[in-house]
Amino acid sequence: MMGKDRENTVWIISTLALTMIAFVFFAAATVYIDPLFHYHGPLEQYEYPLNDPRYQNDGITRNFDYDSIITGTSMTENFRVSEANQLFGADFIKVPFSGGNYKEINDNLARGYDAGKKIRYVIRCLDYSRLVQDKDIVREDIVYPVYLYNSNLFDDVNYVLNKSVLLNRTWDVIRYTASGNKTTDFDTYTNWNAGYVFGEKEVLDSYVLGEKAQEMQVLTERERQMVVENIRQNVTDLAYAHPETTFYLFFPPYSICYWDVLKNDGQIDWRIDAEEAAIREMVQCPNIKLYSFCNNFELICNLDNYKDQAHYGEWVNSRMLEWMYEGEYLLTEENYKEYLDEIREFYHSYNPPFCERHRWGYETHFGLSLS
Question: Are the CB atoms for 303 and 253 separated by under 8 Å?
Answer without folding.
Answer: no
